[in-house]
């Protein structure tokens, strides 16, 4: 039989041929052969589906997630919910594709139906709540509450709640210390901190719920998430940045034809900025007055990019809504593309961001700190500088773009290739451990006083203005994305880079230890440099080795010596 199967593989490579050949076999052989053929088909289909999913463009992924969100509802649930009864009840309105539970001010569930008709059917069965001594705003959103009559039995199994918050630094340190190599630590860090599929779905759903409010005024508008929510570098707990996209409305209104035509009568504003401010002001008031679960609404209309800021309690997200900020969306696509090109990019970015947050180089509060976006661009620039380069320049991505990729926004050429298969990368086999160490060495000695960072050209350029840190905006090339960073914060960053580079050069710190943090976990420990503050500018140049490092290395040497001594005494007893 083994020979027979060997012949089959040689002469019937097409699965269709295998099916036909199978008909002429003995019954028992036919069963085994059919099973093998089915397994091969399933494996082939799975690989094909995976390849198709990985090759999807940024725009295709965003559109798919937007459609999923439009078929979804967010439901506040009782704490001890019977999952089976809950799903059975909702299934009366249509097929459910997927659902999950999470905690935010109580138990919540996201349920995605297979069609929008199911949402319409569900809405017909929903009531406006009766409230005493108050009046309910009769806005019928897809944010719902489940009322369970009577007491619930605790005999049924509880649903699994998906985690929506990041672990603490102490938890991360403990988790990393259990890994065998530093490369494994950085991969583990990425898997622990990255946005889950459920968390991303929830972000798109919150945008869709907000769109239901804005749609009352602009029925054809779209609210899209951008930044960390979609660029593949988002961390659990990060804010949701949104764009109120009105371009679709303008695009459908630019149809030209011969003969008679009609135009909408519209209000006119003094400038596009004035119109944006007016629109966001109205949307902000609607969110505040009519948006269930939206609290702490602030309309910050005088900022360079006007926005509405609020907290969405049912999801636990802090949200920022801007309008027509298409360049920011294109920047998200660019980072997404870079993250897809090489499997080392995302772990390196997550590691640098985690390290920066642990040492207060970045902050959730606006100020003079380096932002996560700036740090990510710095990692991309560093990877462009490797020999051979790991990532292509932005100019190269523009050269590879096809006619359908052409994109000009407000006079800025934002064209980049969308088809990743057109990009040919050079062979660079550096480990994550080596890349992280060289990142710290690179920026610990970078000439920030005279040079700027430019990922479009992939090389240092003379600073066009006297700011502490100059990182050219990838698309709006006259802007500096790090203009907010002052000299003190940059000095702290450089000092910490030098300290971390020195620490990684000491081989003792890279040896696995069960008693103390090692490898990348050791880089997250408090540093003397972190507290240097403004006074460091008046002190002599900081030495890379702080007392913390010396103590840590001494303890590792002592423990290493104790281990050797124990082994020696054990051998002597033998």
N-to-C span: 56 Å
Q: Which percent range describes the beta-strand content?
A: 5-15%
- Judging from the principal axes of the Cα atoms, what is the shape? globular
**Mean pLDDT figure:** 85
Structural class: alpha+beta
Would you count the extended β strands for me? 14
- The largest beta-sheet arranges its strands as 4-1-3-2-5
Low-confidence stretches: 1-15, 18-22, 530-545, 556-574
Largest sheet: 5 strands, mixed
User: Oligomeric status of the shown chains?
Assistant: single chain
Supply Rg: 28 Å
How many helices? The count is 19
Estimated helix fraction: 40-55%
Descriptors:
574 residues; 19 helices; 14 strands; alpha+beta; 5-stranded mixed beta sheet; RL; single chain; 44% helix; disordered N terminus
Q: Overview of this structure, please?
A:
It is built from 19 helices and 14 strands. The chain has helices spanning 2-11, 15-22, 27-54, 58-70, 83-91, 116-124, 169-177, 182-193, 197-214, 247-252, 272-290, 326-341, 345-358, 372-384, 394-399, 432-444, 487-505, 520-523, 547-573; strands at residues 72-77, 96-103, 107-113, 143-145, 161-162, 222-226, 240-245, 294-300, 307-312, 317-323, 408-409, 412-413, 451-452, 461-462. A five-stranded mixed β-sheet has the order 4-1-3-2-5, sandwiched between helices. It has a five-stranded mixed β-sheet with strand order 6-7-10-9-8, with helices on both faces. Strands 11-12 form a two-stranded antiparallel ribbon. Strand 11 and strand 12 form a beta hairpin. InterPro entries: MTPAP-like_central, NT_sf, PAP_assoc, RL. Its cofactor is Mg(2+); Mn(2+).
């Amino acid at each position: 039989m083994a020979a027979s199967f060997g012949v089959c593989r040689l002469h019937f490579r097409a699965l269709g041929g295998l099916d036909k050949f199978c008909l002429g076999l003995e019954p028992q052989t036919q069963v085994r052969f059919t099973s093998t053929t089915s397994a091969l088909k399933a494996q082939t289909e799975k690989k094909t589906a995976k390849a198709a999913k990985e090759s999807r463009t940024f725009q295709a992924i965003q559109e798919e997630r937007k459609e999923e969100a439009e078929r979804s509802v967010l439901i506040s649930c009782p704490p001890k919910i019977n999952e089976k009864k809950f799903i059975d009840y909702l299934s009366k309105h249509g097929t459910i594709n997927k659902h999950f539970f999470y905690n935010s001010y109580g138990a919540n569930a996201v349920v995605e139906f297979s069609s929008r008709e199911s949402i319409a059917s569900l809405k017909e069965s929903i009531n406006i709540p009766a409230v005493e001594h108050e009046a309910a705003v009769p806005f019928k959103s897809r944010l719902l509450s489940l009322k369970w009559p009577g007491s619930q039995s605790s005999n049924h199994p509880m649903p699994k709640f998906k985690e929506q918050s990041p672990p603490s630094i102490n938890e991360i340190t403990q988790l990393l210390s259990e890994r065998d190599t530093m490369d494994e630590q950085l991969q583990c860090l990425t898997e622990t901190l990255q946005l889950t599929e459920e968390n991303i779905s929830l972000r798109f759903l919150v945008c869709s719920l907000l769109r239901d409010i804005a749609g009352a005024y602009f029925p054809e508008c779209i609210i899209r998430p951008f930044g960390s929510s979609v660029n593949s570098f988002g961390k659990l707990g990060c804010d949701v940045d949104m764009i109120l996209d009105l371009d679709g409305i303008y695009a459908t209104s630019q149809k030209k034809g011969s003969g008679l035509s009609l135009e909408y009568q519209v209000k006119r504003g003094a400038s596009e900025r004035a119109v944006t401010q007016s629109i966001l002001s109205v949307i902000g008031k609607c969110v505040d007055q009519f948006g269930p679960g939206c609290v702490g609404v602030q309309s910050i209309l005088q900022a360079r990019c006007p926005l509405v800021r609020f907290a969405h309690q049912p999801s636990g997200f802090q949200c920022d809504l801007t309008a027509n900020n298409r360049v920011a969306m294109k920047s998200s696509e660019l980072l997404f593309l870079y993250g897809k090109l090489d499997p080392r990019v995302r772990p390196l970015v997550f590691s640098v961001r985690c390290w920066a947050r642990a040492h207060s180089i970045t902050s959730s509060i606006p100020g003079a700190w380096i932002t996560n976006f700036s740090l990510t661009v710095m990692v991309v620039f560093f990877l462009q500088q490797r020999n051979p380069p790991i990532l292509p320049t932005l100019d190269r991505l523009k050269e590879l773009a096809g006619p359908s990729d052409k994109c000009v926004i407000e006079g800025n050429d934002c064209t980049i290739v969308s088809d990743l298969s057109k990009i040919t990368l050079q062979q660079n086999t550096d480990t994550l451990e080596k890349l992280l160490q060289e990142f710290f060495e690179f920026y610990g000695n970078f000439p920030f006083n005279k040079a700027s960072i430019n990922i479009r050209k992939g090389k240092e350029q003379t600073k066009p203005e006297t700011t502490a840190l100059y990182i050219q905006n990838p698309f709006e090339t006259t802007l500096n994305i790090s203009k907010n960073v002052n000299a003190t914060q940059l000095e702290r960053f450089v000092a910490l880079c030098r300290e971390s580079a020195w620490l990684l050069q000491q081989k003792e710190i890279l040896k696995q230890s069960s008693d103390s943090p090692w490898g990348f976990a050791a880089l997250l420990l408090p540093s003397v440099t972190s507290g240097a503050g403004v006074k460091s500018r008046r002190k002599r140049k900081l030495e890379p080795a702080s007392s913390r490092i010396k103590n840590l290395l001494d303890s590792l040497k002592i423990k290493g010596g104790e281990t050797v001594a124990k082994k020696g005494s054990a051998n002597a007893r033998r």
